[in-house]
Amino acid sequence: MSGSPLIVLDRVCKQYGTTPVLRDCSLAVARGEIVVVCGPSGSGKSTLIKTVNGLEPYQSGSVRFDDEEVGARGTDLPRLRTRIGMVFQSFELYPHMTALRNVMLAQVHALGRSRAEARERALALLARVGLTERAEAYPADLSGGQQQRVAIARALALDPVAMLFDEPTSALDPEMINEVLDVMTALARDGMTMVVVTHEMGFARKVADRVVFMDEGRIVEDRPAAEFFAAPATERAKTFLSKIISH
């Protein structure tokens, strides 16, 4: 992890009407770094990571990705989003397309790859997430964990330089969570830059370089993962951790 940070948020503020959602949030993520963002519901976690690829506009501050200002008027957001993979809570697969076609689609339309190239890449990625045998299955015939793994393969198909995960396991049954976390852990080992909103503290403890704890739209703590779990600096984080880990 060297050079300038890949992702930089500087005093970002956002509100819906008169309701503040992000309050002076600053964060830098180095290339190859794994950052877990956690905190209670409504603390601004999902909004924070969605500012990185322009899905959430912000009223003030700055968001830069690879030295490009995300919120600038001239920024080509569709092009930028090909470089930033995004995996949501809901899988958002096209129900009328097979897993293979779901992973092929954006390659053809966003990157201009031939169908043959897109198919080859899609098959390789489905193998990477352990779904070779389900390539021709439709989403309705896949488990939630399998659908989320297809969604990860689809995001990786555009060859992103960073991945954003917005509570990727929150819609899954407990027995399906680990199969998704295992894929994410493998990505981390391969050096992918990742910002992950999650309540899975076991994953955070095992994989994260840093933990960002948010409350009421503010970044309350931003510390190395080992330090955060050993001794949170704030009472709010201690209370949150005690509830999450005991649960």
TrEMBL record:
This is Amino acid ABC transporter ATP-binding protein. PROSITE patterns: ABC_TRANSPORTER_1, ABC_TRANSPORTER_2. It comes from the Bacteria. Belongs to the ABC transporter superfamily. It is a peripheral membrane protein. InterPro entries: AAA+_ATPase, ABC_ATPase_HisP-typ, ABC_transporter-like_ATP-bd, ABC_transporter-like_CS, MetN_ABC_transporter-like, P-loop_NTPase. It is found in: Cell membrane. The lineage of its organism: Bacteria, Pseudomonadati, Pseudomonadota, Alphaproteobacteria, Hyphomicrobiales. GO terms for molecular function: ATP binding. Transmembrane segments: none annotated. Residues 7-241 form the ABC transporter domain. Keywords: Amino-acid transport, ATP-binding, Cell membrane, Membrane, Nucleotide-binding, Transport. CDD domains: ABC_HisP_GlnQ. SUPFAM superfamilies: P-loop containing nucleoside triphosphate hydrolases.
